[in-house]
Amino acid sequence: MTSTLDRTPPVRPASQAPTAGPPQLGIALAGLVGALALGTLVWQRSGQVPAVLFGIGAALGFVLFHSRFGFTSAWRQLVSVRQGAGLRAHMLMIAVAATLFAPILANGVAWNDVPAAPSLAPLGFGVVVGAFLFGVGMQLGGSCASGTLFAVGSGQTAILITLGGFVAGSTLGALHSPFWTDDLPSHPPVSLTTVQPFGHLGAWVLTMAVVGAIVGLTYALARGRGGRGARPVPPVDRAPVARGAARAVRGSWPLWVGALLLAGLNALTLWVSGGAWGVTFAFSLWGSKLLDALGVDVMSWTFWQDPANAAKYQAGFLAEKTSVMDLGIILGALVASALAGAFVVHRRIPGRLALGAVVGGIMMGYGARIAFGCNIGAYFGGIASFSLHGWLWGAMALLGTVAGLRLRPLLGMSNPRPTDSVC
Q1: Residue ranges covered by each domain of the chain
Q2: pLDDT (tens digit, 9 = 90+) per residue, 319-354?
Q3: Contact, 375 vs 146, CB < 8 A?
Q4: Which of 15, 232, 366, 391 is close enough to 169 for a disulfide, judged by CB 3.0 to 4.6 Å?
């Protein structure tokens, strides 16, 4: 479950799951009308593909909310109390996505005859430093890239502070990107499809082997948590649950359901757009557009002079892929949370937590930009695309998580304890 800016997580027996509140039909209807209106506007201004991607984004927001699929909390639980359930869900998601990506990438075709391309990136200081910063920022900001969007959509207005930092950091990262990509040494992108003679099949086998090893390691860590008398690894907290068929739109979904659906929607994104799901490029676009409106000549930046980036900038935020999908995620989460009776507007936040949200957001935004992506574009999409940089990103973000956990108490945030009954 992706964390928010709460000071202390609730502690209760794992057998007790909170009951879902009554549906907030007015808010849900407003969200649906807003999504339909914005989707229509995207279709009229930008065409069919961006409108479809907006719809996929809305589906992602719905799934993210109901499965409470967390990246921030999964790494925090693993490091703090050796709870590996979240990371195992990551591995299931990546394994299924890689299985779906392989035939799409091997054939190189997608919808509207757009050639599908893997999410490859160089191996350099940008990935190492950027992913580490992102890992620290996740724990200070209380969320990841996708988690920030669905938290905003579900009414957690406090997380807007994190989003603001995200946009600022991503924009600053765009300004500084030449230093990290051109001035520092790096190795060209490495695809697992080219390091062995069996192409995508061999890359898929290698990926499954690493995924299996990581799953096994999480169980080994749990068994080795302590000696005689040690408490068992605490279970993951459970979100409000509605019983029966209503659970599909009212209650929480198992992590494995979220993993399967996110993998499928990422593969659909690859097929429709020719590229995997991403989140943070939009933040650089939004921030740069704002600076442009204030009179800053952002088009003189090397980042926006790149032909591909310049084309996305000129297309605008209602046409650029990650931008329309991010907007869809927010609205999809809004509808999902309202139907679940969980849409709550947070109005107050302690000063130290606000500081952590800002600093964490800036670190994540900057880190994602110089590391060629975030937990979605680099970690999820990169590994599923058989890019070695995705694994490097994950390893460095995990190290950043260790550092971030040491900083959280300074900002009034608690970490899971071995004596907690839930994480």
Answers
A1: 72-225+254-323+353-411
A2: 999 999 999 999 999 999 999 888 887 667 777 788
A3: yes
A4: 366
